[in-house]
Amino acid sequence: MDIGRPTLDQLGIFIAVVDCGGFSAAARRLGRAVSAISYGIAAMEAQLGVTLFDREGSRRPILTREGKAILAHARAVHGEVDELVAGLRARAAGLEAELALAVDVMCPLTVVSAVLREFQQAHPTVNLTLHVDGLGAVASLLLDERVQLAVGGPTIAAHRELELLALGEIDLIPVAAPAHPLARMATIPPGTARRWRQLILTDRSSLTEGQEFGVMAANTWRLADLGAKHALLLEGVGWGNMPRPMVAADLASGRLVHLPVPEAPRAGYPLSAAWRSDCRPGPAGQWLLEALQERLGAGALR
Question: Rounded to a whole number, what is the largest CA-CA distance in the chain?
Fold first, then answer.
């Protein structure tokens, strides 16, 4: 049997259909017509002499046994080409003229500010743009190529197009003002916190639209700004989870109280640095990554 060679474009289409769960979604991601996606898969199947997807009896294309066997090889080849292109781009570009960074609002901005001050001193010719946002909005900025680097939470890890560098975990703790009814309880029985208004940070992006993060109460106020949530907590209008570094001074002074909510999750909020796999950071970006890893991994998140 004469087996042909699939093109790099066909491999990319194949991977996109798998990752997106369908031909239409893959077409939207790649900016192509659905017919072009269908043709690319059909041409690849004809060249390899196999059927990659079972299209019958399901609205979503299902990988066949042959498709599953080929997928890992397709990812490896496509990934190596991405690395090659990214490396050539970085070497050809030299030091970046501009660099855009997105940072999750949960990340201690005092640490980030100190890193950026040193960055300015080390790379005075690089024009830096900083975006501070939350949840899926950080990943959205990176996926839409509006930034080259990002420091994001767990939602950023769900995207195969991104390369990740783990930085550490932030302690998220439930807090309220000392006058709040929950703060007056030495022990909070299970289910009690649900009866009181919870302040929730909402996602301004469409990537995680409709998902809930740490919501326990039926009565909630949803806020798009962590600073606004902090201010409302200090006023005693509700209770909510906050990153420990942001409220450490409030806890020490008594302006906020750490609530012993039994249902509160004990896991931290993991932070990772991220960049697109097809756009490797240049010298300035690499410097910034290493500085953030050193500072945020040195106990600054607890």
Answer: 78
Sheet holding 149-152, edge to edge: 127-133, 98-104, 149-152, 269-276, 162-170
Whole-model pTM?
A: 0.65
Helix 109-122 and helix 283-296: axis angle, to 10°? 140
Strands 127-133, 257-258: parallel, antiparallel or unpaired by DSSP?
unpaired
145 and 285 in a common domain? yes
Q: Which two tokens stand for residue 80?
A: 């190596």
CATH code where residue 38 lies: 1.10.10.10
**Distance (Å, rounded) from C-alpha 120 to C-alpha 127?**
9
Phi, psi of 164 (to 5 degrees): -120, 150
User: How many domains is the chain partitioned into structurally?
Assistant: 3
Q: How far is 208 from 135, CA to CA, in rounded Å?
A: 8
Gap between the Cα atoms of 153 and 103, Å rounded: 9
pLDDT digit string (tens) for 178-199?
999 999 988 888 888 888 999 9
CA dihedral 255, 258, 259, 265 (to 10 degrees): 140
Q: Tell me: the pLDDT tens digits for 57-71?
A: 667 888 999 989 889
- Dist CA 41 CA 47 (whole Å): 10
- How large is the C-alpha radius of gyration of the chain? 23
